[in-house]
Amino acid sequence: MCASRRRRRTLLAALAICVAGCAASLPSARTLQTKAEGPAPAARQVVAKMDVTGPRGRLDHDQRARLVERIGREGAGSPLKRQLAAMAEFGDVDLYAGNAARLLIDGPATFDAMFGAIARARSSILLESYIIDDAKIAQDLAALLVRKRAEGVSVALIHDAVGSIGTSGDYFEVLRAAGVAVCEFNPLSPLRKRRYQDITHRDHRKILVVDREVAFTGGINISAVYSSGSFGKKSRAPEQNGWRDTQIELRGPAAAALDDLVRDTWRSQHCEPALPSPIAPVAAKPAGPHAVRIVPSSPDDGQNRIYTLLLTAIDAASRSVHLTMAYFAPGQDMVDALADAARRGVDVQLILPSVSDFSPVLHAGRSYYQELLDAGVRIHELQDAVLHSKTAVIDGVVSTVGSSNMDWRSFVANNEVNAVVFGEDFGDAMTRMFERDVAASQTIDAQTWRRRPLWPRLQERAARLFERWW
């Protein structure tokens, strides 16, 4: 759900009844809260439910126990252990140890890092992007991919049929002619029977993996809206400024996990040609200190893993919940979780958009403001830029950066992926980024909001009625 939503309004409206009927099962916040607030499992039970992969393969029980003890000492210990215990209550916790994680703020920093990694590629480049919009940044990318393919590097690109609907087919044909493997996710034509699936099922992920060693994921598409940063000189029209978004760079075993995820999508879509087998990185010392979870979600899941992750983390929070969300139409269960956390003394703050490329979601989100404000949640609306970031930092020690918005399409109709980083140092970086965005925002006053005019109230109520269709 990005800049192309303007182009997709008619399509999505026609498909709304299908979207409403394809909802996956979402857990109740009340159920999650009851579990998260109960007695925490013993450490040995948490370790038993963890599957941890390091640079040299799966860690044994003792190694997993030492990892839990080490990361549990961060952030005064108890908040992170409490979060791990809560996650363990809802199934196995797959962790990747020995990673280096780096925040990338806005498009210019992200593209500089991504293009640099591609230029250094030795064996493989896998790119999965919802939008490739054929602007200058995409043309520069194409030239770089063609060059690396000529050097003998295996290059594969998968793009969403709706997200990239405005991109000329010639753009992709040039890549194919140069030997780049190109695949369209869920083509719109039912005549393409082998690959045509549910038209409402879209691939909203943004993933780049180079040599299975370095990976990027988050909210940033290959799009012209990211060509400039969101801070600095401002236009009177916020949408003309650089979009505010966030990406994460991962080095280590988590990068290989993202590589596998792209390959799984390629196979499930019957993309051609078949990708060459991955070349495993040479076992080496850890790339960094971070333990990471890679949390994918799909409409095929019985229960949305990202939704469960967020609810669990909010219900287990003891100090702070700081969310930055581009599209906020969360449903009552998520609102209840946020409000309950604030009432029990947790510092709950949200950074949400003041303008949007799709206003119905903006109005639907605002319909929940009064309830949240009355519970003690602080709400800030980012000014002078379009907010497209999807991040959270919980208790300063559990951080997530990803593609999933807090809305129904993300939870029930899209392929999404979030990276979760455990630890105080990365949490500090996330908190500094959050504070910087708060400084660029306007804080909503509860009393002023209560006195807002009738027309916005009507827009919000109408948008709430169709919340599950956006």
List the keywords.
470 residues; alpha/beta; Endonuclease, Chain A; 18-stranded mixed beta sheet; 18 strands; 39% helix; disordered N terminus
Give an account of the 3D structure.
This protein is α/β, with parallel strands linked by helices and 470 residues long. It has a single domain (1-470), classed as Endonuclease Chain A (Endonuclease, Chain A, 2-Layer Sandwich). 39% of the residues lie in helices and 22% in strands. It has 18 helices and 18 strands. The protein has an 18-stranded mixed beta sheet that branches. Helix 3 (29-37) crosses helix 11, helix 6 (78-88) runs antiparallel to helix 11 (305-316) and helix 13 (359-366) packs across helix 18. Residues 1-25 and 27-40 have low confidence and may be disordered.
